[in-house]
Amino acid sequence: MVRLKTPEALESFRQEILSKRNPDKPCISICAGAGCVASGADEVIEAFKAEIENQGLAAKVDTKGTGCPGFCERGPIVVIYPEEICYLQVTAEDVPEIISETIKKNKVVERLLFEDPVTGEKAVHESDISFYKAQERAVLCNNIKIDSRSIDDYLALGGYAALGKALGGMTDVQVLEEVKKSNLRGRGGAGFPAGRKWEGSRNAPEPIKYVIVNADEGDPGAFMDRALLEGNPHSILEGLIIGGYAIGSHEGYFYVRQEYPLAVENINLAIKQAEEYGLLGKNILGSGFDFKVYVHQGAGAFVCGESTALMTSLEGRVGEPRPKYVRSNVKGLWNRPSVLNNVETWANVPLIINKGADWFTQIGTDSSKGTKIFSLVGKITNTGLVEVPMGMTLRDIIYKIGGGIPDGKKFKAVQTGGPSGGCIPEDQLDLQVGFDELTRAGSMMGSGGMIVLDEDTCMVDVARYFINFLTEESCGKCVPCREGLRQMHRILTNITLGKGKEGDIELLEELAETAVEASLCALGKSAPNPFLSTLRYFRDEYEAHIKEKRCPALACKELISFYIDPARCMACGICLKKCPAEAIDGGKKKIHIIDQEKCTKCGTCFEVCPAKFGAVTKISGEPVPEPIAEEKRIIIKKSKKESK
Amino acid sequence: MKEIQFEIDGNKVTATEGMTLLEAAQSAGIFIPTLCHHEKLEPFGACRLCIVEVEANGRTKLVVSCVYLSEENIIVRTRSEKIDRIRKTIIELLMAHAPDSPKLQDLAKEYGADKDRYEKEASFCIHCGLCVRYCAEVTKKNAIGFVDRGIHKEISFIPEIAAKECNDCKECFPLCPTSYLQAAFVLTEALAFPATSKSESKE
Asked: What is the ipTM of this complex?
């Protein structure tokens, strides 16, 4: 076992690892992130191993399960080095062909390549794929290159060089100053400058201090932190150790949710490996600096992502926020100075130390520096993790990287910032993403969730959905959040059910004000955002629901009816057969009619009616036309008669 | 101990270091409404009724006075249009649970709150936590606690402890603003230790 005693020993060990590696030796990297595993990556990895063994190629080809490169929509993802040939949606059945063609004959398997949905062009390399082209992957770039369970892979790519640099050649104050100069802002929600937070802790008189990783990512549809925790745990760990050194802390914690079992496993493994190499523990790299890290599993409460609730939970008590007006970087965990930063924030620290604050500040806008990882999900062609420089417009993210809205639908809004973020409408698509820019637009950066909504989405229903999530996740301690959200959810639900009343909007506004102004913690204070931002941009939808009992997006079940247009129905019988409620009457050459009494509004008829007929329609806010007279329902050689 | 001078509703107030705004106001005879506050207990900050406006360095913010510490030269306002509106909403939200609580009815009168503003949920408990905290912090018996979370949270006696400790104590009973506590106790008694209570009542 190697124990690295100086920064120089770390560097020569890195050279030793590299010297044993042949950069021209083919290496098959298969994403082993949670998304790809769910779509069968484990079987693909096994199939590669077995095939390589069978073909007697074990000495000539490497295989590794890597971290998530982000294009989860098209998983399992396989990248073959050194050519960087990228295959998407690979199954175990494709493996023999990849081995015999690509590995043995150096030929590309065309059908597994990415095909541009617009131009139809095939992309051979990862960097040619439109999804990746416009991204700037400073933090995520190593995910696909390293076996997430191998510290040697991380070291081979320059891992722990920042730690060596900090401990070997910089004072703790210099490290702090570098982070301050970089203007790195917290990636977890509020965007507080990390350097200032660190300085507050460093200057606090209490000698025992802590550094903590907030890995309690719980936003619906968000998996940025998960990809880093699972894929490149050492990058976060390295940042944490550097942070500990800068503020004079000797103890760090990972607060990670137990619903991320792979993340918990990989982090624990990373800590063990770092301890074995002397990158954690006593006298790290001979610097005299001691640092120890513990992993704590959260029990899955969203509120424990809030800083004081997280610390209370870490202390072993009920995860409720503290009522006191004291900053946790001065009095946090066990009342001692505690720096809590999000996973992505910590992962940026080694980059800043390695490349310098000046490199970091080149990227981004005036007030938001560096890159940001977003999880781009919802009604979007390319779902996945995207890392872009701050300041890129929402339009570029959604159209250039995300490939726009599928099925020819129209864009309606993008929901950013997690459940307590807001919805940004089409006329603001040229907004540059940044902490202050998003806040001004009535939303927020949050931890980087980005849910794209199309024209079929009802904005009142979106508000109801997120308020429901937050109601369920409220800790229940303070009245404005517990009771206010309960009532907001009730009123919003009634509006979507067609039971909205005059004055409901005003009542919701009053409840929102109370929650924003009087709640105990950030969860409650930001909870009304889904309502406030949708009201700001889509007030007409609220009014249509309340006044006309009409859902403009034709989404609220209680406010719509399904109707078969007799002029378009060709009596094909598909909807008749598929209707689970047996609510459709019709027959051969007999125009179909939906019995509104029996209809359960499941939407099956709407989905199965052939597009060339398009006879089934949704009606909202007006009565369903009376069924046509029985004698007119018979279709008599329609086409010929009409043509005459 | 260091003395701190500041202003509440136009009155000069002197507080000692570490004193909350609520304590300073009470010692100066200025009334701020509360529901979850009790002088023997650690500040809880849950009902948010004691919310006040603090003006410092030309900026105004809303804080809850039961946990906010006194600061030199600040200006505190205990009533304003906004504060009254927030208090009214809080009272109305709680009256959806306990419309007949005398304490809430008095507050409703003061702030013009309508007990029928929000749809009723007859659970009676307003989660002020006085019983739970008194039992933990003052009598140190821990015979009652909160169970579950958020909107599903409720108080619950721990039958094993309650059977031994409660009959001779019941100090928490007068603290409850809605009398739900007493009901919860009777229910626990009836379900979990009826024999004990009967034998005791015969003695």
From this structure: 0.94
